[in-house]
Amino acid sequence: MTGEVIAFFVLAIVAIMGGMLLLHLSNVVHMVVALVFTFLAIAGIFITLSAEFVAAVQVLIYSGAVTIIMLFGIMLTRHDDVSEKKQIKSSTLLAAGGVGAFFLLMFFAINGMSVSEPATNLHVDNTKRIGELLYTNYLIPFELISVLLLAALIGAIILAKRDDKQEEKP
Amino acid sequence: MNNVPLSGYLLLALVLFCIGLFGALTKRNAVIVLISIELMLNAVNINLVAFAKYGENPGLTGQIFALFTMTVAAAEAAVGLAILMALYRKRKSVHVDEMNHLKQ
């Protein structure tokens, strides 16, 4: 057992526990806080995969921005705490069966895969090389994603804006 | 066993994806459904980064694709939350079961 294996198992257990807590807790704020642990553990997984820059972006965007925006979404809406009834419905069973079948299918597909040698030089100048690739090979996708972000920003503002004209009419 | 095999990372991503899928299908709170979708996208990111290291052609392309996925996921979260706000203002509820405008 090397340190990498131990780190992987600890991070994997934390990530899966966060996901399980998301399914089992009843308070919505607690659910989001449980998922922060999952996001942070996934950032650690990225570091063991020698992707330091992606790990930093994961911490910034997921555990920072997305979690905060979800907490805002929870606080701006009303939630009745005893919302979920404990009795198991048939639709839940159906969903569980479908997800279980999908899991088994993908499990056997993963087991049948052949393995190849891992790359060893990914961590050398990781951020610098990602930046160079983004501005050479992937320049057009990079510009397109900026247009997408602008469209999402304007769209979110317009959707969430209170339309005053309709309220003044009556 | 010197380092973790590729299938270990793929299995972790599969478990997280299944948790997210189950949450998105069964939870009735729309905010939690959005968060479950974020979890599914994150599991896909693990796959992309794992294949960037252990795949047939290792390289940085997988990591760059993971970055693009994160950007799209962030945009999706913002727009989804905005739609939820607009819907909540009309209906005073965020339950998925009550979002059946198109049926009536």
From TrEMBL, chain A:
<comment type="similarity">
    <text>Belongs to the complex I subunit 6 family.</text>
</comment>
<dbReference type="Pfam" id="PF00499">
    <property type="entry name" value="Oxidored_q3"/>
</dbReference>
<dbReference type="InterPro" id="IPR001457">
    <property type="entry name" value="NADH_UbQ/plastoQ_OxRdtase_su6"/>
</dbReference>
<feature type="transmembrane region" description="Helical">
    <location>
        <begin position="32"/>
        <end position="49"/>
    </location>
</feature>
<dbReference type="InterPro" id="IPR042106">
    <property type="entry name" value="Nuo/plastoQ_OxRdtase_6_NuoJ"/>
</dbReference>
<keyword id="KW-0560">Oxidoreductase</keyword>
<keyword id="KW-1133">Transmembrane helix</keyword>
<keyword id="KW-0874">Quinone</keyword>
<keyword id="KW-0520">NAD</keyword>
<comment type="function">
    <text>NDH-1 shuttles electrons from NADH, via FMN and iron-sulfur (Fe-S) centers, to quinones in the respiratory chain. Couples the redox reaction to proton translocation (for every two electrons transferred, four hydrogen ions are translocated across the cytoplasmic membrane), and thus conserves the redox energy in a proton gradient.</text>
</comment>
<dbReference type="GO" id="GO:0016491">
    <property type="term" value="F:oxidoreductase activity"/>
</dbReference>
<feature type="transmembrane region" description="Helical">
    <location>
        <begin position="88"/>
        <end position="110"/>
    </location>
</feature>
<keyword id="KW-0830">Ubiquinone</keyword>
<dbReference type="GO" id="GO:0048038">
    <property type="term" value="F:quinone binding"/>
</dbReference>
<keyword id="KW-0812">Transmembrane</keyword>
<feature type="transmembrane region" description="Helical">
    <location>
        <begin position="55"/>
        <end position="76"/>
    </location>
</feature>
<feature type="transmembrane region" description="Helical">
    <location>
        <begin position="6"/>
        <end position="25"/>
    </location>
</feature>
<keyword id="KW-1003">Cell membrane</keyword>
<feature type="transmembrane region" description="Helical">
    <location>
        <begin position="138"/>
        <end position="160"/>
    </location>
</feature>
<dbReference type="GO" id="GO:0008137">
    <property type="term" value="F:NADH dehydrogenase (ubiquinone) activity"/>
</dbReference>
<dbReference type="GO" id="GO:0005886">
    <property type="term" value="C:plasma membrane"/>
</dbReference>
<protein>
    <recommendedName>
        <fullName>NADH-quinone oxidoreductase subunit J</fullName>
        <ecNumber>7.1.1.-</ecNumber>
    </recommendedName>
</protein>
From TrEMBL, chain B:
<comment type="similarity">
    <text>Belongs to the complex I subunit 4L family.</text>
</comment>
<keyword id="KW-0812">Transmembrane</keyword>
<dbReference type="GO" id="GO:0050136">
    <property type="term" value="F:NADH dehydrogenase (quinone) (non-electrogenic) activity"/>
</dbReference>
<keyword id="KW-0472">Membrane</keyword>
<dbReference type="InterPro" id="IPR039428">
    <property type="entry name" value="NUOK/Mnh_C1-like"/>
</dbReference>
<keyword id="KW-1133">Transmembrane helix</keyword>
<feature type="transmembrane region" description="Helical">
    <location>
        <begin position="64"/>
        <end position="88"/>
    </location>
</feature>
<keyword id="KW-0830">Ubiquinone</keyword>
<keyword id="KW-1278">Translocase</keyword>
<dbReference type="GO" id="GO:0030964">
    <property type="term" value="C:NADH dehydrogenase complex"/>
</dbReference>
<dbReference type="GO" id="GO:0005886">
    <property type="term" value="C:plasma membrane"/>
</dbReference>
<dbReference type="GO" id="GO:0048038">
    <property type="term" value="F:quinone binding"/>
</dbReference>
<protein>
    <recommendedName>
        <fullName>NADH-quinone oxidoreductase subunit K</fullName>
        <ecNumber>7.1.1.-</ecNumber>
    </recommendedName>
</protein>
<dbReference type="InterPro" id="IPR001133">
    <property type="entry name" value="NADH_UbQ_OxRdtase_chain4L/K"/>
</dbReference>
<keyword id="KW-0520">NAD</keyword>
<keyword id="KW-0874">Quinone</keyword>
<keyword id="KW-0560">Oxidoreductase</keyword>
<dbReference type="GO" id="GO:0042773">
    <property type="term" value="P:ATP synthesis coupled electron transport"/>
</dbReference>
<feature type="transmembrane region" description="Helical">
    <location>
        <begin position="6"/>
        <end position="25"/>
    </location>
</feature>
<dbReference type="Pfam" id="PF00420">
    <property type="entry name" value="Oxidored_q2"/>
</dbReference>
<feature type="transmembrane region" description="Helical">
    <location>
        <begin position="32"/>
        <end position="52"/>
    </location>
</feature>
<keyword id="KW-1003">Cell membrane</keyword>
